[in-house]
Every structure is written in C-alpha cells, then in structure tokens.
Hints:
Aspartate Aminotransferase, domain 1, seven-stranded mixed beta sheet, alpha/beta, pyridoxal phosphate, single chain
Amino acid sequence: xxxxxxxxxxxxxxxxxxxxxxxxxxxxxxxxxxxxxxxxxxxxxxxxxxxxxxxxxxxxxxxxxxxxxxxxxxxxxxxxxxxxxxxxxxxxxxxxxxxxxxxxxxxxxxxxxxxxxxxxxxxxxxxxxxxxxxxxxxxxxxxxxxxxxxxxxxxxxxxxxxxxxxxxxxxxxxxxxxxxxxxxxxxxxxxxxxxxxxxxxxxxxxxxxxxxxxxxxxxxxxxxxxxxxxxxxxxxxxxxxxxxxxxxxxxxxxxxxxxxxxxxxxxxxxxxxxxxxxxxxxxxxxxxxxxxxxxxxxxxxxxxxxxxxxxxxxxxxxxxxxxxxxxxxxxxxxxxxxxxxxxxxxxxxxxxxxxxxxxxxxxxxxxxxxxxxxxxxxxxxxxx
Length: 384
Ligand SMILES: Cc1ncc(COP(=O)(O)O)c(C=O)c1O
C-alpha cells in the first residue's frame, strides 16, 4: 500500500505511535492546570512539548500557542487583527488560498464591511508580487491585513513569502502566512521568517488530529476566540489537549531529523515526473517551473478524468486525491487551478500525489509503474 495523500492528512508517524503507547501506559493524566502533583507533572510534559516545538520552529516559547489546528489559528488571527474597531478596510489574500482563509476573509467582507482584494497568480501558481506592490502603493494606509500561504496544498508551489513579508514589514501591514503545508515538509524558522503570524495543523505532519499551533510574533496582540478559563496565557481558553500537544513535539522532532533526506527525495520526485512525461508526452505537471515542496506532484493527463486515474491507482492499493469535489458528477477544475488559468481538459484530469519526508524513495518507482499502467489503460478511451 502507498498512502500518497499527506497534504490531505498524514497518518500518525511511527514515533508518535510508539510515544503514545508508552505514554498511555505511564500517564500522568490530569488537568494540566490543576495545582496537585499530577496536574503539575502533566503541565510540565506539555510545556516541555511547547519548548520542543518552539525550538524546532525557531520561535520563542511564548510565541507558541496550542490550539485545534490551522483553521482555528486563521480565525484567531483574523479576529485579533480585524475583530476590533479598525479604520483600515482592505484585506489582501491570494487567489490560491485554502478555503479556511478565503471564507474567513469573505465573512469579514460580508459581515464587517471589509473589502477583499485577491492577488493573481501566474501559470505556475506563484503569487504576483508586482501587483501586490502596486496595491500597497495605491492603498498603503487602508490595508488591514495581508494573508498569503507559504506553500500551496494542491500544487505544492512555494510562494514568494519573503518578499511579501518584507513589503508588509516596510509598510507596517500585519502579515499572516498560512504555513499549514510548509511546516513539516521543509525546514521553517519563525523568527527568521519575521512573519507576524503563522499557522499549522498537527495532522498534516503526523501528530494527532485536532491539534495545531498558532505562532504569533507578539502574542500579547492575540484576542482569544475562546475566552474560557484563561488557559494558554489567556490566548485560548479551554483545558489544553496536552496529549495531542505532546504528539506535535514528537512528530516535529522526527521530521526535523528526516530533513537530511530532502534533496534526495526532491531528486527522486523530479526523476519520477520526467519518466512520466517521457512515457506520456501529453502529461502536464502543474507548477512545474516554480519552486515546489519536494513531496508533492500534481499531475494531469488532459482528457482523462482524475477520478478515473484515482480509482485505477486505488485498485493497485495506492491512495491519491483529485483536485476537488464534483459537481453533478462532473469533476470541476479547482479554484486554485482556475486562478492559474488552467483549462478544463487539464484541470479535470489532475491527481495529487503527496508523500512525506520519511516516504521510502522506492515509492516513486512503484508510482511510475502504477500510474503508467493507469494511463495506458485509460487513454484507450478518452473520458471527456
Ligand atoms: C493550506 C491549508 N491551510 C489551512 C488548512 C486547514 O487545516 P485544518 O483543516 O487542519 O484546520 C489546510 C488543510 O487542508 C491547508 O492545506
């Protein structure tokens, strides 16, 4: 079996499984806010996990706020920056953001009178920084928040987040970088990035689902979405998911050690794509000319339904995804691909293959065989 949907959700990483088995045997289990010995011990374990996450992610201890995942982190940032009386009325996002960003920005437009401006991307799915410069020049004193992702969940394309952040810093504009697909797939240092805010979900990198981290340059500026009993230094109420938070420290430690494989994995991925293109010259690799995560390939055979390819691969015990949902049983070109100007014949044909840092490199050989078989079979009858 090859699980190739890590961008959707990563299975629990081996180290997390081993950790949990021991941890569940040993305890302690207590409210980390309780003042008895078991509470203090539980708190110590969780704060140790925070220290580990902070170190690996290049943040200060206090800049790590545990929560339930990226969606919550995004909501918290929007609430903190836009939830009070703000005179500035423009939110800038990109056309390839995850719906957790798009829908939140649209909510603030519909309910709070903000205007959302959507940055275009080029054919490889890279955000247009020149347009951003123009918009900042024209609206400098009216931009409340800029939110652009570090790496795209569909294409794996890495965005010019450094340039975007510098523009934000130079112009005093708060910047949220959605690092959900970036953290765990490539090294990341929050302080070096100089972002105001970054978010991620534990389930994307092998920790338990329902865990996440909000990184905030100035945590004092966070307005809690959940008030509760003042946990997480008042940034996020509710008894902490201490076991889940510990699993993030374990998973990040395991991944950090695996980054030595990054170059070799990227090379193997490039070879895989080259082999597919050579065998099937019609094949399109989305975002091919842009810097991309080493673990993601978004591949299309124009005219062949991505879902048909997915089913063929599944019959060979390989699990990939297509770009997005169907409408009336018709695969639809995703919003991300439409923003890239991708035509429907390519857009309906994509499958996303996303692995992890620890995936055996031979997976790419197996994928080459399996995908070649699928294309050889399906090209006999064009899907659309
Ligand atoms: C880029 C990006 N941002 C945000 C999210 C939302 O993450 P979650 O559903 O874990 O809150 C995802 C999940 O797919 C994502 O890929």
